[in-house]
Specification:
mainly alpha; Transferase(Phosphotransferase), domain 1; 17 helices; 51% helix
Length: 366
């Protein structure tokens, strides 16, 4: 099994207490991304809870313990059985009724509620009392428990915790998009309180009507940002790219979605290279937006090489060492100064001398 170097969300909450809304939603967004993939394969987890969510230092959240998961075609569930941890289980599951993906989404909403408040939305002593609270009262007022939670996010969580499955979100992606939209409406200010979204700067309304960024650049930036914030990256790209035509401002806006300072610096470094070398919308020349109109960095600087070259390098390395090549390339991109130096660093990760020599020989065609 994969070794995950990091605590469970349960341990994190025990030592740190409730999490800031930005971090809690970022973690659950990744959980929803994983659940969405499982659901698309017909797999229902049925035991989503903080102890089954692993949070390693690199921020790549993992879902553990599919021990009681079932497929759509499985006969594992028998009427009357209640599997899973009761505090996080949907009412239909508590009553031994058939479950589907919406039952997992209910559990994910309980996890998000607890991550934001330190308590569960239905505090009861018995299963019967829990079901009664779900049906007749609904979850506790999360904003009363944590005033930093925006009302829009409360509405999203309340919907995900609806007693009737038909009133919940239909899919993990729909739930995740609703979370992203709710949190984007109320950014956190530096004093720890809530601030309303600032007005668009002069000219931003016109920028919002037309995208000045190439689709390929935005797609690559979204991929990079998703490494740290999951599905939230899509909304972040959409909003930030429409609000500015300056690369530095765009990258700073996107980096603000990343909680970890080291990850934020890594994203900014990669983003600067991308905006410097990405062809403009016509595809005819490198973009110059990243330096406020200055010419792109000269060859041999510490900026990224063109994306087409990076793609070829990654493809060549993948043929030799497999899918891990993508990670290896990304790691070495942080420190290289010239393309030959990048090749030398990558070659050091190739165990076979013959393959290493062949890889280095391919540099001659660059």
């Amino acid at each position: 099994m994969e070794f995950v170097d990091g605590p469970s969300l349960a341990s994190l909450l025990k030592t740190s207490g409730p999490l800031p809304p930005e971090r809690a939603t970022a973690i659950v967004a990744q959980v929803l991304s994983g659940l969405g993939s499982a659901h698309e394969s017909g797999i229902i987890h049925r035991d989503i809870k903080p102890s089954n969510i692993l949070v390693p230092a690199n921020g790549a959240v993992k879902i553990a313990d599919f021990g009681i998961a079932r497929t759509d075609s499985s006969d594992l569930t028998v009427v009357g059985d209640v599997l899973g941890t009761p505090a996080y289980v949907a009412p239909e599951q508590l009553r031994g009724e058939p479950v589907d993906n919406r039952s997992d989404l209910f559990a994910a909403a309980v996890v998000l509620f607890e991550a934001l408040t330190g308590v569960k939305p239905f505090r009861a002593k018995t299963v019967a009392e829990s079901i009664s609270l779900m049906e007749n009262r609904g979850p506790e007022d999360i904003c009363a428990l944590n005033p930093l939670v925006p009302r829009a996010l409360k509405q999203v969580i309340d919907r995900a915790l609806a007693f009737d499955p038909s009133r919940r979100f239909a899919s993990a992606s729909e739930f995740s998009q609703a979370i992203a939209g709710a949190t984007a409406l109320a950014p956190t200010d530096t004093s720890g309180g809530r601030a309303t979204a600032p007005p668009l700067p002069s000219g931003a309304a016109e920028v919002a009507e037309r995208s000045v960024w190439g689709a390929a650049l935005l797609h690559r930036l979204e991929r990079e940002l998703a490494t740290f914030v999951g599905p939230l990256a899509s909304l972040a790209i959409n909003q930030s790219s429409r609000a500015t035509s300056d690369a530095g401002t765009l990258l700073k806006s996107l980096a603000d979605y990343i909680d970890n300072e080291r990850d934020r610096r890594q994203f900014l470094q990669t983003g600067k290279g991308l905006t410097a070398w990405m062809p403009d919308q016509t595809g005819s020349s490198p973009s110059v937006r990243s330096t406020g109109g200055a010419t792109p960095p000269a060859a041999g600087s510490a900026s990224l090489p063109p994306l087409a070259v990076l793609a070829e390098i990654e493809e060549s390395l993948t043929r030799i060492i497999g899918p891990i090549a993508k990670i290896v390339v990304k790691e070495h991109l942080r420190n290289f100064a010239t393309l030959p130096q990048l090749y030398q660093a990558l070659a050091a990760d190739i165990p076979s001398e013959r393959d290493r020599a062949a890889f280095l020989d391919s540099l001659k065609s660059r």
